[in-house]
Amino acid sequence: MSFLRAADARDESGHLIRELHGVTLAQILEYLVAAYGWPELDARLRMNCFAENPSIKSSLSFLRRTPWARTKVEELYIKARTAEVQGRPRH
Fold this sequence. Notes:
Blueprint: H1 25-36, H2 38-45, H3 48-51, H4 56-65, H5 67-85
């Protein structure tokens, strides 16, 4: 059995997950909300856009103008998708 490193995990299309090929910020956020929910996203990332009246629209607006926050969201997405592809539980 070969183990994939997180850096080598690929999506269903064969693209490296860490490169976010063809994945929009909206898709990333929708995936994370479905996977974790707003309260868990706030607990993991500590951003008011996930705590105070959260919505996809308001969160996207914040993430698009706040590079450090977008980076944290993208990193969580990569971690979660990699775990999903490798058949491991998301942490």
